[in-house]
Amino acid sequence: MLDRITASLSSLAPAEQRVGKLVLADPRSFARLPVRELAERAHVSKPTVVRFCRSMGYDGLADFKLKLAGSVSEGVPFIHRSVDADDKTGDVLVKVVDNAVAAFLQYRNAASTVALERAAEAIAATWKTGRRIEFYGVGNSGIVAQDAQHKFFRLGVTSIATSDGHMQVMSATLLGPGDCLVIVSNSGRTRDLMDAADIARKNGATTIAITASGSPLASTCQIHLAADHPEGYDRYSPMVSRLMHLLIIDVLATCVALRIGSPLQPILQQMKENLRAKRYA
Question: What is the domain-level CATH number for residue 32?
Fold first, then answer.
């Protein structure tokens, strides 16, 4: 992105060139500063800052800063570097956190809002008709499935979560039209999960996969929420894929809550009162 700005400078108006040079001089600051301060630093008007962003092919300043933040994050020193034996605690902290942040930004910039909307609508529709919502996962993905059940339950959306392969296949057999199955898998190649997805889909249930693009599970399910972060087992690698899956569940739960809307309010209020009474009894 910065190389493209450098190559385009000579074709811009002088005022826009000053904005471009400001980006190149300190891209991190540009990504976080408000338009007023950016204009002051470049000695231009605020509309000129916006025009520069549009001349680079972006919708405006917000879109430009979003992409810039992702580009800069992927260029930080410790991204995709393994932890070495002589690393100090501070080095480990930066490497682990920066790897996770870079993965989240890559997901944010590549995620399909259309797929997220379809998944949220399917889950909300299942809730409104009183049908079954289930979450499946194995290993670390099983932990995500349990977390998903917890998050949705706190919204008043009852569901089932299981990480046992036999239970998944049996439970999927009981699903039918109007039901919704969400399957979490990093590789998308676990046999039991693929079998469960195939059974549920053939029975008429809506199947949603949170998994890697191009995996068998992604092609088996009707809705695919791409989560592309392969774990490297030849060196130390933070479990970023699980964090990404949890992030996707958070986004999905929030979208579902917004679709359900006002009917959730009395449920959440009663739940809060009951928990408070239990906590302070």
Answer: 1.10.10.10
